[in-house]
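Hello again,

I reread your note about wanting to compare the complex against the isolated chains. To keep things tidy I'm splitting this into two emails, and this first one only covers the full assembly. Below are the input lines as submitted, including protein chains and any nucleic acid or small-molecule components. They are followed by the predicted structure of everything together. The single-chain runs will come separately.
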Amino acid sequence: MKHLLTIRNLEIEARADEQWKPIVRNITLTLDRGEVLGLIGESGAGKSTIGLAAMGYTRTGCRIAGGSVLFNGTELTTASKEERRKLRGAHIAYMAQSAAAAFNPAHRLIHQFAEAPVQHGLSDFPRARDKAVALYERLFLPEPGKIGYRYPHEVSGGQLQRAMVAMSMACDPDIIIFDEPTTALDVTTQIEVLTAIREVTRQGNAGAIYITHDLAVVAQLADRIMVLRYGELIEEGNARELLADPKQEYTRELLSSRIIGKPQTQSEDKCYTVLEAENISAGYTKDVTVLDNISFQIERGKTVAVVGESGSGKTTVARVLTGLLPPSDGKIIFNGKEISPALKHRDRESLRRLQMIYQMPDVALNPRHKVRKILGRPLSFYFGTDAKARERRILELLEMIELGPEYMGRYPSELSGGEKQRICIARALAARPDVIICDEVTSALDQLVARGILKLLRELQKELGVSYLFITHDLATVKAVADEIIVMLQGKIVERGPKEDILETPGHEYTELLLSSVPETDPDWLDRLLKGRGAKIHKMHEIS
Amino acid sequence: MNNISSMIAKRMGLGFATIIVISVLIFLGVEALPGDLAEAILGQQATPETVEAFRKELKLDLPPHVRYFSWLGDFLRGDFGNSLANGRPITGLIGWRLSNTLFLAASTAVVAVPLAILLGMLAALYRDTWFDRLVSVSTLSAVSLPEFFVAYVLIAVLSVRLGLFPSISSISDEMSLGEKIHGIMLPCLTLTLVSLAHIMRMTRATIINVLNSPFIEMARLKGIRQSRIIIRHAFPNALSPIINVVVLNLAYLVVGVVVVEVVFVYPGLGQLLVDSVSKRDIPVVQASGLIFACTYVFLNLLADVLAIIANPRLRSET
Amino acid sequence: MTFLRLLKKSPFSARVGLGMILLNIFAAVFAPYIAPHAETEIVGDVWMTSGEDHVLGTDHLGRDMFTRLIYGARNTITIAMLITLISFTVGIILGFLAAVLGGWADQVFSRVVDIMMAFPTLIFALMVLSVLGTSVPVLIVVIALLDSTRVYRISRALAMDIEVMEFVEAARLRGEGIWWIITQEILPNAMPPLIAEFGLRFCFVFLFISALSFLGLGIQPPTADWGGMVRENSGAITFGILTPLWPAAAIAFLTIGVNLMADWFLQRSGRIRQEQE
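Full-complex prediction:
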């Protein structure tokens, strides 16, 4: 049988340091009408590059070095520029990760929608406009008749992403490439976009390639899944079979990295409150309150997770505790003593006891300092440690984070993402703190690396009895590490309690919405969820 | 719209405040002169009586703020006082020269701006080709050249060797427009060469920056023709920064004429300013300095306002 | 030694630029040993053309042009260097302080700089010189202060970019003082673009004092200075004698060299920043 798209032995190279290096190796795939193919892998797997190559397109600095891309009888690798241009948009459409960047800021949404059909001579503007309105309505965009006349900067992120789904459908293409279309979104918004994408892939007989790093997301959409790593195929198969019974070790690891069992917490410990926030309110300007009367405690050796979506104020909690943003009201009590709200009035001792680890290890380490200086500075700063003792302690710290002594002389640019985050952890530990604030510490990392970091943090907690305040939007992380959960919405705590209670019997409807929105690897999850929510879908829009 | 007009109003207010502060500075600068103007002009042999009389004539006996406001008031009415060097009213001296300077700057702009934008865009479109490299190296060299070097090379070749244009650009009111243009050919060419490079480099960088944005990639992936991508997608987004560059370079032109005017002995405001500085004819320096400053501030303001209007992100539905 | 390794990877244009700069520095440092005559010695007729005795001919007073050019390198480069150094010291210190302290310090510095930059530099300099008179110290201080406004803008912007990075926040949370944050966290990261900027500002200053001297308001004769030499000999051009072109070409030669180097540095620091993102 003839396939809609056949890619055979595809080789792609990228130019780095004045020479061509392979980034995609020997990839063969096929796609039929009505089929959704999931491409999954971590960063550097080459999945986006393959997606773009399916359109006969490579980014600047890349080239197709070998193989063939055959679409509906046209060989894209040898086709003329003009032939390829005529296919793009009309027969093969692309949907980018960030609609905010991919929409032209100078034109209204509907004109950008109509551009491809009109330019390819498939339609005229009035017909394209009617089609846009119909699609906007199908994708649950508010005011479908009017929203198209807005500029991209006047529409929210989730809506813009759905408008882009609509745009990719403008010419009724044969193939749509979805390139990480929900990665930048909150979980509740992600559901809207996923639903929209499923809406357009289920109906009609187009084929789709869905690119993502998230197995649970791809499970909801794909009929077939290809697992990629370092530009090579690891495993391929029917979605359900592959998820149920992965053949390769790497796929198994990817699957299992979503679940990390938490060991039983030692309940025999006497409860001792290290940090207490009492009725904290804060805002960046006088009129806007970002945090509204927040109270919570952190106990020694325990992990409290603050969960919420963007705009919930969870990062502000960290800024208030560290003193970067003095609260307008309320008290911070550390080890039974109230500490000054502003950073500059705190003494060195209370600074030492509260440390922080950041989301982006790339910018959390000074690129001009070697590891020796990064870890040595807190030692001499807080403890006045002399050079010899410092060297010993740095070695100890490196050992704690499972890195060898050779790392001492390295610059951050010579480390991988996971290693950098480990150095950040060691820097925090160097101060021998009581509490470490972990601000989205795993969200910039690949899944397997993230799992390693979480494991390490947990072991260190057991060993050193340090407490964590985990700020995250990722409920999988919460499940893995938390003892206690605080759920935040629009600057308020909507629910708070021990992990088991919150996860099993959520008491607030937002918590329920949040929990149920986290994708599961079960391919029927989205169907069940939508059936369950049914009429509630509009209510969902209102809350989030 | 409201948003844009309030932003523009704010910029204009700032521009106005800047001019006021500059006028105060210019005024105070002269106040800070050791001794005072009267002594400086009359020299040490003058008797105290003559100095005193001269002070009265210059109104130096009044308190500073009174003098400032009367100076500013006169300035706004177009009365700049009298030159110390020859006692003639400055207004007459400046008016004609200012129009000459603006004529030279405007003629240059008419040639340089379209040419620079065109070449800059071509260099961006044919990035990393021999054309682009040639443009890069030659513009980089051109911005490094002193204006008088370019000017004297042009004189040596076009005037002395080939005898095409006069090396001294004297113009008068009796000359026809054609004669005037022939007269200012060399200074105009000099300024064009110097400002061309600046605008070209910036235009090229701006266009390349826009062409690298994700929405251009998106347009390519929608199968849009290259010509349409440039006109519909890249140009509206590059417009704002390019306008900014152009107007800022016009501001540079107005000031850059000073050296060129001196080389070609062109009767412009710059020439007058330089002469007056060496003669220490303070009132003339004050007046022409303030005019230069106002023009410069005005053009900067214009750049800001046009950039705001041309920025698509500030446009809204209503 | 890292510089030598860097140089090996540098493009042809940067090496040419370096060569041009080194030639100038050599002339400036060893002026008395290379120059065939003394700085102000009259050795022949007015505006003699190039010949065996006088490689580049003589000037309007009959002094040896080649000698004057070499001494001019010494005088003009030294003064331009001094000005750029002062301007960078002042500009960087104030710019970094404004970025790190924020608040009123930033407001005050920035508004003053706004006003000074709203004023065209050449006009400002001319007005100040008309009041204070032209002497080398006045020239140095006035131009350095005027130019430091540009350095202020750039170093403030650079520091602001670096300041929002989390490693600076981490240092603040540790309790580090301003001195550590500026010298250890911000400065090393701002260095590559600042070095490129130094080259560009040096060119600007060099062209600027040359222009002032050319207008007769800069370095005063009989000190040999390239801009002034163009002015003194400008009359020769109408007779078809190329004497004023030599010092003008010398100015162009040096600034092109510095620009070529700076351009390479700028590209390098741009690339480094991209890699970090």
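For quick reference: The CA atoms of residues 39 and 72 of chain C lie 9 Å apart.

B.
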